[in-house]
Specification:
Among the domains are: 65-196, Serine Threonine Protein Phosphatase 5, Tetratricopeptide repeat (Alpha Horseshoe); 253-356, no CATH class. 53% of the residues lie in helices and 8% in strands. It has helices at residues 2-19, 31-35, 55-64, 71-87, 91-103, 109-126, 129-142, 147-159, 163-176, 181-224, 243-255, 306-313, 352-356; strands spanning 273-274, 280-288, 293-301, 333-337, 342-346. The protein has a three-stranded antiparallel sheet, covered by helices on one side. It has a two-stranded antiparallel ribbon with strand order 4-5. It starts with a helix and ends in an 8-residue tail after the last helix.
Length: 364
Amino acid sequence: MAQSDSDDGMDEFMDRFKSQRYKNAFTENDWEQEFNKIPMFMKTAPEEIDPQKYPELACLQSIIHDEDRPPEEQAKCLKDEGNAFFKEKNYEKAVVSYSAGLKKKCGDQELNTVLFTNRAAAHFYLGNMRSALNDAAAAKKIKPDHLKALIRGAQCCIELRNFPDALQWCDEALKAHPTDKKLLELRATADKHKRAAERDTRKAKVKEKKLHGQKEALLAAIKDRGVKLFQSVEPRQHSSDSEEEEEERSSAAIAQLSLDGLNSQEVTGAQVFLDNQGLLHWPVLFLYPEHQQSDFISAFCENNCFVDHLAIMFEELPPWDTDRKYLPQNLQLFFEDVEKEKLYQVDPEMSLLKALQHKSSGGL
């Protein structure tokens, strides 16, 4: 009889839904939003947890951060919280949660190893390779054979282009996990990059040595011609100077011959060079103060005469020469002695080398 009364009561309760709609039911338009407010069904956690808007989530968070619980339990909850953030690719918050778990200083070394390893992974995806490597090393110190920590340490070293250390991480890891496919792949990658880096270093040294020889030959050619450099070159002291110091001094001497200090964009970077036939080519700047104009020849061969270039440069009158005065046969050339602040006239039929060998030549 009691069973019958109960069934009648349930039937009556269910019958009410046929005529009276449930007031708090989800609608077709908002059911997804409403479900997303329930922690179990949330796709992503909100940035800020408002107790009024998310009471259930606020309650769960208060349980996680309950300071009255044992450190191990708190650390585990923070690890789980960090894992949830990690799955959402919110690596910054994952780092915060893992760090909070480590601050609990629980006695569970296995848990601490996982916290360090997981934080290393979060740092890795944030691009913080040094921090990731430090965490991987901390996890390895607690548990030397922890596979994920060993893999992460090797990955960090590769990203930091520290290939010898990457190989060391892999070799140590393979002692404990000799058949792990990921470790074997990482070791092969590290070894490949290490060999490539060593090859590039050798090539760079050969190139550097070649450039040094070219600079030495250039400096010797300039000295042999008796050309006065813009700044004097300090004499070498073979007895005490190292090769690096000698190279730096030679490089500095050649650098003094560049025209980098001039304002013209076309001139920047031009330098004297020695060609395969042993001829010097100089950057030469022509200034026309009367009209505030200039011309620039980046590679004026030392054997060429000024008149040859002037004939080409003024084959057609420049637009700024409204008085038609700048004809090749009318032009007068001067070079400036920078130190003495004096001008010297140059014969247009003279070669560049002859002008450079002038006893007072300090720059054209």
